[in-house]
Amino acid sequence: MDAWLVQRFPNLNYRIAFDYTGEMNRLWMKASSSLGIPASFLVDRDGRIAFIGHPAELDDVLPRVIGGSWRSSDEAKAADKGRIDRNERTARELALTEPIYAKLQPAMQAQEWKAALSAVEEGLALMPDNYGLRHTHVDLLLHKMRDMEAGLPVMRHLVGDAIDKKFEAVSWMVMALKQLFDPSTNNSHLPPAERFAMGKELSEQILALSPPEKDGPLKFVWYVPVAEYHYECGNKVRAIELIEVALKSLDLPEPMPDHIKHYYLTPLLQALANYTGENASYADLCVVPQTKAPETQTAAA
Length: 301
Description:
Blueprint: H1 2-8, H2 23-30, E1 40-43, E2 49-53, H3 58-67, H4 74-109, H5 113-126, H6 131-144, H7 148-165, H8 170-181, H9 192-209, H10 219-232, H11 236-248, H12 258-276, E3 280-282, E4 285-287
Antiparallel strand pairs: 1-2, 3-4
Helix pairs in contact: 4-5, 5-6, 6-7, 6-8, 7-8, 8-9, 8-10, 9-10, 10-11, 10-12, 11-12
């Protein structure tokens, strides 16, 4: 742990505690019905927990806890009720999804696609709008089983639902577009006319909600399949422009830690190298144009 912290965070200026006994999880996370991390607990001057929530909320809440005005406020009560309601919903969803994934994951690992499809369809009967199951359903039919007769209607349904969600979930549109234009996947078996028609609709919607000329988060994720769509349409200049915008967005709204940045840099630089036909570099990361099948490609650091 010490070596990892020194390597990843050489200028760390606050303490890190590591609980290897599980007491933190039992006495704090489970006791407060907190289901995910990161999670922060603020203890006030009276030794009582005044706030439980995401660390991003601390800038607003901490001064009020220190000043003594937070714990009894209406806002504090509403925040706690909202947290409990969200966690209860998540707990109900987990109760439904855990048995499904207990069947799905072994089937996927064993490449038993029919068994995996059966598990997914069982899950979707219970949770028709589950993001992960919808994604896996399309991937199984279109890419693993290559069942166009069953897969294309499911894909069209996903595209329609993704566009209907608009601001609620741009990630749904990106997920759908990646099923059609993921640069790391061979999509040559998909019917070209339908593939490009759906790609056009999704790309236009994503760019309308997150235009290149305006600052915004997550372009470094959203723009990769959008750029691939334009590149495969023959608009190489537009594809390069979008990747360059995505690269600039990596530090918006604030600088990103280097080890996380490198994770998102690789697909961006790979796309740029492929589109320009030249090596693409950023700091110590250099990527060459792909000349082999996508699954055999690696980025050179």
